[in-house]
Amino acid sequence: MGELTVDRLRRAAEALSEDVARALWQVHAGLARDVALASLYARHAAALDDEAVSLARELLDAPDAPQRALAEWVAETRVARALAPLDEREIAWERAAVVRLSDGRAFAFGDVPRALADTRDRAARTAIEAARARLVATELAPRRRERLQREHDATAGLGIADGYVATFARTSGIDVQALDAAAAQLLRDTQPMWDDVLREVARRRLELPAGEPTRADVLALLRAPEFDGGFAPGGMLATVRTQLAAMGVDASAGGRVRYDVGERAGKRARAFCAPVRIPDVVHVVLQPTGGAHDWRTLLHEVGHALHLAHARRDLPFEARWAGDASVGEGYAMLFDQLPLDRGWLRRYSDLDASRVPAFLRAAAFAELYLLRRHAGKLRYELALHATAAWDDAPALYVETMEAATSVRHAAADALVDVDPRLYVARYLRGWQLRAVLADALRERFDEDWWWNPRAGPWLTETLMAEGQALDAEQVATRATGGGGSALAFAPVVRVLERHLG
Fold first, then answer.
1. How confident is the model at residue 288, as a pLDDT?
2. What 3-state DSSP class applies to 366?
3. How many helices and strands in the chain, by DSSP H and E?
4. How large a percentage of the chain has pLDDT more than 90?
5. How, if at all, do strands 272-277 and 281-285 pair?
6. In angstroms, how far is CA 109 from the centroid of its own chain?
């Protein structure tokens, strides 16, 4: 077939990416019973052979690594191929796993978070969580331990850098140590505010004693069912379409974005955005659970979908399918935080005006929890991957996550609550980028940019059209015209302080 060139690699990579994305979309949307990932990777073996890895190393060695994203795709996908049999096994397990309680009740594993969030009685909630933790400890955690070890082995086999974290840093271009330091500073800076709001919310809403909430309790706190009347499920998608139209954006992007927001047996509980052919076929899939959470989740996936569907067709493969995922997370968070805007709530929700301050405080509480939780996860995962001491993980996990959240965590989750390839770094940078984007939109189109018909075209044509050709720092620079573009947590925290102060 001749020497592997960048263009040949791009064509092979796109064909593989589309096949894998389509298969994962079908199984997670409940449209297929299983997924044959290993056979898909075997069918596209040329995209991930040793020659492709050698080319990836050459691209990373080039000055300024202009095609870093393509090299990163090779590295990540080569590892994914090694993990495919384990991922198939886990997908099948999650679809069949049942959490059984001593009183005879049973929950599908994927439905447990919803059950915990909807259960107001703490004893009942504790029983569900204990049963979930037992199942995780005996069945899922051993699978994840095997996966983590194989992921480390496959990463080492790439020969790109010395160690898992170093390989991520080199392929992604992200200074993980600087981000870790910023996360540590975030935790210190927000500790007093978090101590006050957690104590107050836990006591007022669930009558929990100070210092005793568990992660299961927090799910109930985040649910906030008292605001459900302001976010009717029936009008959710129509309202989002109306709001996007007001800012000059077609929610379907000319038919390229397809929405699947109804209930279906077999559909994964966690919402997701599934690009099958970028920019032409992008699916948004959501299994409704009720309340403002559904609205924010839909808006999050809408941000992802609009970004993917507006990528220029002439961009190379890696600028549409790979690159810095922090960018996509930034756009997703830009939209999912719209319900933290008073004006947006008045115009698009059914909340009584007297309830808006309480809702904003509840939403800011949830956002601060998630922000601190992800900061803690970054610190934990960096330490975990640096040592790969799986036996020590439970103690490290409980200590690190409780320090970050003031919430008790289950040791059984130590090797389960870990995202592949340090994706937590992308979420944290997404928060930072979102703050820059929101400030830029306010400066250009006023506080109510979300219904200014000029805001949408600027967002889609100036920024989203670049796909992920630019990393988060470069998108921030373009959004601000080169000024005030540094990614930081301070502007993120300032918004939360306004609602929690």
1. 87
2. helix
3. 21, 5
4. 90
5. antiparallel
6. 20
Is the C-alpha dihedral spanning 115, 294, 319, 428 positive or negative? negative
Residues 188, 192: Cα–Cα separation, whole Å: 8
**Cα–Cα dist 489/501, whole Å:** 17
| Max Cα–Cα distance, the chain, nearest Å | 70
Tokens of 468: 């992920």
- Residue 497, CA distances (Å) to 309, 361, 363, 490 in order: 34, 10, 12, 10
Angle at 235 between CA 229 and CA 236, to 5 degrees: 85
* Average pLDDT value for residue range 95-114: 95
- Judge whether 455 and 442 are in contact, CB under 8 Å: no
Residue 211's pLDDT band (cuts 50, 70, 90): low
CB 482 within 8 A of CB 474: no
177: exposed, middle or buried (C-beta count within 10 Å: 0-12, 13-18, 19+)?
A: exposed
Question: Is this structure's pTM higher than 0.90?
Answer: yes
- pLDDT confidence of 7, banded at 50, 70, 90? very high
288-299, pLDDT tens digit by residue? Answer: 888 899 999 999
